[in-house]
Amino acid sequence: MANTSELRQDLVSGDWVVIAPKRAQRPDQFKRKEKRKIAPIKGCLFEDPQKNGNGDPILVYPDLKKWKIQIIPNKYPVLAHRNIRPRINLKGIYNFENGEGFHDIVITRNHYKNFAHLDKKTALELFKIFQKREKMVAKNKYLKYFFIFHNWGQKAGASIFHPHYQILSLPIIPPDVARSLEGSARFYKSHKKCVHCEMEEFELESKKRLVYKNKDAIVFTPFASKEPFELRVFPRKHLPYFENTDEKTLKGIIDALQKSLLKLEKNLGDPDYIFFIHTAPLQNKKKYTHYHWHIEIQPKIRFFGGFEVGTGIDITMVKPEQAAKILRG
Ligand SMILES: [Zn+2]
Ligand SMILES: [Zn+2]
Question: Which of 234, 208, 226, 200 is closest to 324 using CA atoms?
């Protein structure tokens, strides 16, 4: 029954999706047809962030004169950069907290090279600067979560072409992360095993959804994918914290992430995409030893309709097994 619909449940979050291959005419209908628009270097705000009104960077590699990577505060932050104190307030029957935290922009020097095309050394330094920033932010005990993400292309929400990454340091644990943490804790309680280690073992053996592996990382399309061609990159070692990951594992992850993005570029006509890191929260470090950090990649090739928005159930029109086959090439 290759083309029948299936309701599938995510093992960790408990979310349901409909896998409905009949909704798509052919999997290659998702290929991007038009060429990516490359914004000119002239007028690019990220060529010289200091000249464009940003102060000294929070962190820079290797130094400001010859910078290859720099972290600056976002000029248009989601959260106010102020001294953070916990304040739970009430407005009538409603709860609110002041929107305080940090919203950083991380810029890599080359205007044209997105993460897939960064040389290995710069990509490693980028991950190390993320780790360094996480350790700085963790000292503020009121901040609970460090969220790193990358939007590539306009459909993925990037307003500036020049490759950049964003980090939100939040005073709350985001709901999707909270559910992932709870699901992982629940599985650990009943099986005495890490749910993600189990999943990796299963995917390596079945090979149906496996897209790439090396000694330190594995990439597969999730059984209950929310987006067609969604991918997840996991360290093969059980590691709750991104910031405590050793260099050898980071190199394996970077290789796997770059290979995955290149596969999307090659097989889907250079689609826009997002990727983000799910890691254990900043505080209560002992509470989350069951968690296994990872990267999720979602190509942005479809729109949400009323069903998805109103029910929280996503409709995925390419079977994850078929997506993996196409991406393996
Ligand atoms: Zn630029
Ligand atoms: Zn694990």
Answer: 208
